[in-house]
Amino acid sequence: MESKFKIFIIxxxxxxxxxxxxxxxxxxxxxxxxDICRFxxxxxxxxxxxxxxxxxxxxxxxxxxxxxxxxxxEEINVTSDMSDIQILFSTYDIKISSSVEHALTFSQKSFVxxxxxxxxxxxxxxxxxxxxxxxxxxxxxxAGEVNIKGEVNGNVIVFADKVNIDENANIKGSVRSTSSxxxxxxxxTISGLVYAKYDEEAIVPSNLKDFVKTIKEEGDYDYxxxxxxxxxxxxxxxxxxxxxxxxxSAKTKLFVKASEKLKGATAKVIISGLVTIFAMPIIFILxxxxxxxxxxxxxxxxxxxxxxxxxxxxxxxxxVLGTIISEYMLKTSYAKYFDxxxxxxxxxxxxxxxxxxxxxxxxxxxxxGYLYVVIAVGLAVTFTVLYKTLKNKVEE
Length: 396
Description:
This protein is of the alpha/beta class. Helix content is 39%, strand content 29%. It folds into 2 domains: 2-215, no CATH class; 231-395, no CATH class. The protein is built from 9 helices and 20 strands. Helix 2 crosses helix 7 (341-358), helix 4 (266-292) crosses helix 5 and helix 4 (266-292) crosses helix 8. The radius of gyration is 24 Å and the shape is globular.
């Protein structure tokens, strides 16, 4: 049975990374364009996120309905809607004039004249949100110069040299800015508070002075520690994941095996999680080098694995940790109290809810969330590494 499983895995890998280039319905969808890359030229129904490489300009001129990564040696011009999470790398500019759900962009300059419909982050020398731009979510910006002229229905966090908030800007949340200087127009609309940490000067209109906390001394930054806790979302998601956990537990020994393999490996979990997280930027850079050298068969699986780890860390961190805790509790003296699927369901849901609420503790909540990320990634890496060495022990 074991040899058949290995043969199946090998066959699946061959199909994924070689056969997918022959058939129309791909498992892995990536393309390399020596000149201009037009999304309308690519028609694929692949299952996994797409990867696009272009030595020239990239035109997103057809609708995109799945997550993906796009590398371009020139500008990326987004003129059609893109759903899900989109990671865009450009040597020059990125222009978004349509609707993007979640965007993670790296470029020289980023121009937004369309809609961004979820929490996004931008890394660039300059970021410009013009009068037509609408951001329906929180926005994180790392840039040399930032110009905000459009509407932001969320909070704006900015790390930049210069920050300009135009008279047409309409920000429904708060603004947190760490910069050399910040200039807020007299007619700008900001519903929340403005926290501005600056080196040189802050130009603040008189109608906002009562709402602005400006400081120049390190360590005197006034953060707003109050958070709105999405109780309903936490409870519902915890109940759904707990139900999935119980159903899978009844049909497979996956979680039992995972807890057995990870028993006594706490140090390995934390160390492997930290090493993996810190290594991610280096791996991205090495992937770009390998792409330039033409080793694309290596780059694609690496990018897919990194995407899986990012999703694991960002979305499933609470549930990965909570599931392992639940399994450990079912092996202690308390196991007699959880002798039915309903009781296991209640136990897992409570653990998920508690872990989620811990992230909202003022000051330390951020550190707790980061710890969850480290442990979740570490669990995945350690579980994979220990699979072969502890296989016989688990089967016993």
